[in-house]
Amino acid sequence: MAHKKIAGWQxxxxxxxxxxxxxxxxxxxxxxxxNEGGMMSSVTPQLHGQVTSGHNTFLTxxxxxxxxxxxRASRNFWVYIDGKGAWSAxxxxxxxxxxxxxxxxxxxxxxAGLLWHKVTRENRQLGIKAEVTSLVPVGSDKVELMKVVLxxxxxxxxxxxxxxxxxxxxxxxxxLRDHRHVTSLLNRIYTLDYGxxxxxxxxxxxxxxxxxxxxxxxxxxxxxxxLPVGFFPVQEExxxxxxxxxxxxxxxxxxxxxxxxxxxxxxxxYEALGGIxxxxxxxxxxxxxxxxxxxxxxxxxxxxxxxxxxxxxAAAFDAELTANKQFWADKVNTVSFHTGDDSADQWMKWVxxxxxxxRLYGNSFLPYHDYGRGGRGWRDLWQDCLALLIMExxxxxxxxxxxxxxxxxxxxxxxxxxxxxxxxxxxxNNIPRVWMDHGAWPFMTTLLYxxxxxxxxxxxxxxxxxxxxxxxxxxxxxxxxxPAAGSSLxxxxxxxxxxxxxxxxxxxxxxxxxxxxxxxxxxxxGADWNDGLDMAAQRGESVTFTAFYGDNLxxxxxxxxxxxDRTGSGTLELAEEMLLLxxxxxxxxxxxxxxxxxxxxxxxxxxxxxxVSGIRAELKLEQVADDLARxxxxxxxxxxxxxxxxxxxxxxxxxxxxxxxxxxxxxxxAGGVRMTLTGQVFPLLGRAAAPEQIPHMIASVERxxxxxxxxxxxxxxxxxxxxxxxxxxxxxxxxxxxxxxxSHMTVMYGNALYKRGYVREGYKVLDSLYSLSVxxxxxxxxxxxxxxxxxxxxxxxxxxxxxxSWLLLTMVTExxxxxxxxxxxxxxxxxxxxxxxxxxxxxxxxxxxxRELEVVYTSTGSAEYxxxxxxxxxxxxxxxxxxxxxEGVLIPRAVLQALPEGQVHELKVELA
Length: 912
Prior knowledge:
Blueprint: E1 10-11, E2 18-21, E3 31-34, E4 40-43, E5 51-52, H1 67-70, E6 76-81, E7 85-88, H2 94-98, E8 107-113, E9 116-123, E10 128-135, E11 143-152, E12 158-168, H3 180-184, E13 188-191, E14 195-198, E15 202-205, E16 208-211, E17 215-222, E18 230-234, H4 235-239, H5 249-252, E19 265-268, E20 272-277, E21 281-283, E22 288-298, H6 304-311, H7 314-332, E23 336-338, H8 342-361, H9 378-391, H10 396-403, E24 416-417, E25 424-425, H11 441-453, E26 462-464, E27 470-471, E28 476-477, E29 498-500, H12 501-514, E30 541-542, H13 543-567, E31 571-575, H14 594-607, E32 616-620, H15 621-642, E33 644-646, E34 652-654, E35 657-658, E36 667-669, E37 672-674, H16 678-685, H17 694-704, E38 706-707, E39 711-712, E40 741-742, H18 743-755, H19 759-774, H20 776-779, E41 786-789, E42 795-798, H21 803-815, E43 818-821, E44 824-827, E45 841-848, E46 851-859, E47 870-875, E48 878-880, E49 889-891, H22 893-897, E50 904-911
Parallel strand pairs: 46-50
Antiparallel strand pairs: 1-2, 2-8, 3-4, 4-5, 6-7, 6-12, 8-9, 9-10, 10-11, 11-22, 12-20, 12-21, 13-14, 13-19, 14-17, 15-16, 17-22, 18-20, 23-45, 24-25, 26-29, 27-28, 30-35, 31-32, 33-34, 36-37, 38-39, 40-41, 41-42, 43-44, 44-49, 45-46, 47-48, 47-50
Helix pairs in contact: 8-9, 8-21, 9-10, 9-11, 9-21, 12-13, 13-15, 13-16, 16-18, 18-19, 18-21
């Protein structure tokens, strides 16, 4: 059957609201519903999806993206029409599936916003319309709400009998294929006035066989709070012998429900169903009737009267919907953009929401993210903070401080993140693994915080270190460590050791400098940012992150000099063992010698073997800064001299990796071109790429990695699996980490181009990503940025991606040029003419120095970057004296903090 072209979604409001006709004709669509209390849901146009509060507490069956069209289990709501038969308000019946592409198919419309979801479905032959609105209420209740409005669209009276039918899985995701039936024997099913509750007797999961206290319920009421008339609490009885969830006997035959609403135990040992029968009711033409369905996960038996008193009526639902819209609008509109493209501005609202979603979901609990068990990884902790620094800056200082407690004394870090801030857990799977890039991200995020806040005192805050059985970057085991001893590093005397945040940062960046392979680049270890490069732990090297660490060392040296000037103190204290890593302060190391570097690192490991003496050395800031600068300059020189790949086309690019056979990965051979985008991004982001090299790198990327259909590929086709490099090359080319358009690195490439002054080129990169994402004919995704675009142009792994934080950061700090410089506000716009509206205006609303600012750029001459500069500024109408610096114009923090709180302050910036 030929693919039928359909229109894509359209924005319908000014707060990200959008609509999509016939949404169920597109596969893999799903929408997040979530709150700060831990309720995490997803819903599709046919009300598939899942409802959970964690890996071990799924109300509905856990699912992967393929289950969205394969599984028959959904939040179904049936209507039996007297004389006409059964119809699903969710579009999820065998009959409707069979008629999906026929003339008798339902008409459907999706409408959605921040964060609510509504599907309107109408069957003209049956004369029935259903509007189903779904949301998770704001607050701490683990509840999902659904309101169903049924309307008679025909010319005569109809008699309807509604039935909600939501499978109650009620256990851990681990039980889906491991003892699925056995765990159903634990079910204790109760019928109450409003619905069905399940509380399994025990929980079977990796934590052991324990008495279970969690309960799960599906409850319903009519619009005025009237009770249901009966229930179908057991799934097999509902579907009948030979039946199914998409054509159940109880609905098709309009069977009588079971009564029993006293809360007594109804049955046990069966798969449960939130089957709720409402009273039959006649509907005149144009008449409607509403029903509210409440899905809840409780810590113990559910107080149903309280629950339904709060949510169990149409009026209560409508109030929750209003509160929901307001809450998420306030959250997202902390940052907003106005350019010459209103659709792009609306799209950015969804991108702005995505870092919040990642904070709430982690990397789990959405259909594409079926591999996660909850929580976030080390890298996520730091990159998600990039967006939070812009959106929720008041919370970031404590988050950063807590995160540093995960650093080990060997420069590596914890990989198991606990449920609470600052909680790190020793590896429960006993797998020794280190990602070599992990040490690079914390300083980058902290530097952004310092620039936004000016809070240099943060560097001198004390924090503990993480300790478990692994040491020497997981090369050795500490046989003396016992879990009972706790996960805090101790001194030789047994006391918990703390060091400054600055000490943690220095350690994370100094250790990798010495941890090099045979080509004098930092060892790849378990992998770097690209987790798919996981098969070169012995001889693999990450040239690209060597560049990142080099730039960190340079920035740290500059920061120490600033710290000396700002604080007046000329010294800092560090653990005495770290003197071995600051070699120029004592016995210098020949940086060109791999063996000398490795020998020095081994001496450090021996000096700090999962414990420290507790003695601190007092060092001069200037000398430490000089040592770091010396290391940074050596890296830059080394990379430019030894890792530049010459091209037959002239120019070239940077090699990014060495494989486990010690071979250079990138270059031009008779077999084709091997090139990675990552290998160019990090030299560009910092100082490793010399100015004269940049145009050649850009030309090489355009020639070897740009694809008109899917944008900037993560890598060229390496031709077959690379067992000496990583599993990524076992993926089909054009998918995920093997040659897809991977949004994270594409956005970082754009960011790097802006940073190095290649604004038009950076704009092309970001615009390509936007154009790919909103091309619904190919991408088949709702507004937002996906993790990647596959070879067909489909957006994959939607919503939960660190690229959203990077895109938001890039738009605010680079495109609109609203950034901090050690606490002061720096305005340095890099807008191009397409981003100004017809009146020559472009504006951004954002937070800075605890104040809401609206920065309005007005072009009175050329609107092309490079042809304008800041000519004048007014703040709330008052002229601001221009304080020019090399990048732009500086406004002292004190000026902003003198402004009253609780209102928006306008900065008008004239460009000429």
